[in-house]
Write a structure and sequence with these properties.
alpha+beta; 3-methyladenine DNA Glycosylase II, Chain A, domain 3; two-stranded antiparallel ribbon; two-stranded antiparallel sheet; 8 strands
């Protein structure tokens, strides 16, 4: 009987010891994890833009700790924030090249023809249903759906024209989702100034002229320059981003464009 009681007491004491040990270790590591989580959360910008691939800064921080992986990094935070995360976790960061948005329409009010008044909801999505409002069916409607969804205030509208501050842009792509006419594109920001074709009209030049004074007329002047990265397809000029071109060539193309629709953004 004594042996049974002794065995039960021994097992009980062993169980109690491990229970206390597990509770202690659990509390210790839990506090440590919470401290790391709070440190990471404190240095993140807190704008919940989703550019990192997660729904919020909190979700990003939780996943970074749980999987010991920084994924694409904090895009708006840049190298400063990402280096701090690296220091906290002691792991290597893998951040993608910064991308910024460009808008393929730069005509302002008075440069793009409007044949009729619009009395509906003041959104691009609603106005896009009524094609007669803006004669160019490819152009920017200018009601600012893109501006409304930009989480960092990088987009502004003035005279129905889109302006993008590439210093503020974080490449989240929300403007792409918001624009009913598909005017936005994300491009890698490898060097400044950033050149782009500010037109999306695929009609022939004579038709473009009827609806916009700033539209691409497909003249091929830009693509005929030596070492030019420009190509003309479906009456519209594009820049082949995979083709490295000297800035002098891009500047020459911009200067020679008869409608001045090849622009640069060097904010």
């Amino acid at each position: 009987m004594r042996e049974v009681i002794f065995s039960l007491l021994t097992l009980g004491l062993i169980g109690l010891f491990f229970s206390i040990l597990l509770a202690f270790l659990s509390k210790k590591f839990s506090v440590k994890e919470n401290e790391v989580f709070q440190k990471i959360l404190d240095i993140l910008p807190g704008i919940n833009c989703g550019a990192c691939g997660f729904s919020s800064c909190r979700a990003f921080a939780e996943s970074v700790i749980k999987q010991n992986n920084t994924f694409s990094g904090c895009i708006p935070g840049g190298s400063s924030v990402n280096n701090k995360i690296k220091s906290i976790l002691g792991i290597s960061l893998s951040t993608k090249d910064k991308k910024v948005a460009i808008c393929h329409c730069a005509a302002e009010e008075g440069e793009k023809k409007i044949s009729s008044e619009y009395y509906g909801p003041l959104t691009c999505k609603a106005a896009d249903v009524i094609e007669s409002f803006l004669d160019c069916i490819y152009g920017c409607l200018g009601f600012g759906d893109c501006q409304d969804v930009c989480p960092v205030g990088a987009i502004t509208i003035n005279k129905r024209k889109v302006f993008i501050n590439i210093n503020l842009c974080i490449g989240c792509g929300k403007c792409i989702e918001a624009c009913p006419r598909g005017l936005f594109e994300l491009v890698s920001l490898k060097e400044l100034p950033l050149y782009y074709v500010a037109c999306n009209n695929k009609d022939k030049g004579v038709e473009v002229r009827k609806v916009c004074s700033k539209g691409c007329i497909g003249c091929k002047i830009c693509s005929s320059i030596e070492n030019s990265p420009f190509i003309v397809k479906d009456n519209l000029s594009y820049i082949d981003r995979n083709k490295k071109a000297p800035l002098g060539v891009l500047e020459e193309a911009s200067n020679k464009c008869p409608t001045r629709c090849i622009l640069k953004n060097n904010a």
